[in-house]
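From the methods appendix. Each design record in this collection lists the tokenized structure first, followed by the designed amino acid sequence. Records were kept in a plain field format so they could be parsed without special tools. The example shown here is representative of the layout used throughout.

RECORD:
FOLD TOKENS (295 positions):
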């Protein structure tokens, strides 16, 4: 299969999985009523890691190659889920989806800080629009809650995770499936340590909660993060980030429909402003890339 075909297929598959990723916000918000938020991360990634590990072992793939790299990126993914799950105990699923989507805005900011790159006018505009969107969606500093703050921290951490995995898989050519497996195992270990340290419960209340967990394990966890790791080999960062932002839109839609959350004017306006901030850089990069290829 040619590279162009692989890129197009990656876009289609990743877009489909972003629909499933969008369901995780309202489902996790509901599941927290039955399972501890840290335990949710533990169950999601331990079972996803077990399934992926068995598959790789069956294919005679060495699971310990570049283990420290998988553990390193897995640590940031673990922080992302801890911040997101704890935030969902307090804020709404729609707020969480929009605020988490800000990771795309934070990517160039982190890059500018780490690589001493120039903070461009476009990045400044994105930051201004995203702050305006945050202000509207949360009601300003007087009404912003701790769950919103945790969701913003989750976005920052995910921006770091995305940048790290891009270096590992696309530039250093690490095995994407092995890297995903190692991330899953690392998240499981970090989660069990936090559960033991804080004395959190591991019980799952009822078959309804078990069903929600099973869905989160198989599709949004095992499926989505494996696909993200694989497609990063074929997609440029701006293309990948553009597709990943779709989970923000789907997350809000599912929260307002299946999740039963009340649709507010502030939620819609703030969410649209955040989406605008998120899409500016990817769209400009895509436009520039197409212009160059046409010359």
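DESIGN:
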């Amino acid at each position: 299969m040619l590279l162009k075909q692989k890129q197009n297929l990656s876009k289609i598959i990743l877009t489909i999985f972003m629909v499933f990723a969008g369901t995780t916000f309202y489902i996790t918000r509901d599941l927290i009523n039955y399972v501890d938020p840290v335990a949710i991360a533990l169950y999601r990634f331990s079972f996803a890691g077990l399934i992926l590990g068995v598959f790789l072992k069956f294919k005679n793939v060495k699971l310990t190659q570049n283990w420290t790299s998988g553990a390193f990126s897995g640590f940031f993914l673990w922080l992302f889920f801890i911040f997101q799950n704890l935030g969902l105990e307090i804020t709404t699923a729609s707020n969480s989806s929009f605020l988490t989507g800000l990771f795309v805005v934070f990517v160039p900011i982190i890059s500018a800080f780490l690589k001493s790159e120039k903070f461009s006018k476009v990045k400044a505009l994105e930051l201004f629009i995203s702050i305006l969107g945050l202000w509207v969606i949360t009601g300003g500093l007087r009404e912003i809650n701790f769950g919103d703050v945790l969701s913003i921290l989750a976005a920052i951490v995910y921006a770091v995770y995305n940048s790290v995995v891009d270096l590992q898989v696309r530039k250093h050519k690490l095995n994407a499936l092995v890297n995903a497996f190692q991330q899953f195992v690392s998240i499981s270990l970090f989660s069990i340590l936090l559960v033991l340290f804080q004395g959190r419960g591991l019980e799952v209340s009822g078959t309804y909660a078990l069903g929600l967990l099973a869905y989160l394990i198989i599709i949004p966890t095992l499926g989505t993060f494996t696909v993200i790791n694989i497609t990063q080999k074929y997609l440029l960062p701006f293309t990948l980030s553009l597709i990943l932002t779709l989970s923000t839109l789907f997350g809000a839609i599912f929260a307002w429909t299946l999740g039963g959350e009340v649709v507010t004017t502030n939620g819609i306006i703030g969410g649209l402003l955040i989406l605008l901030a998120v899409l500016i850089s990817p769209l400009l990069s895509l436009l520039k890339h197409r212009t160059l290829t046409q010359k």
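APPENDIX NOTE: The radius of gyration is 19 Å.
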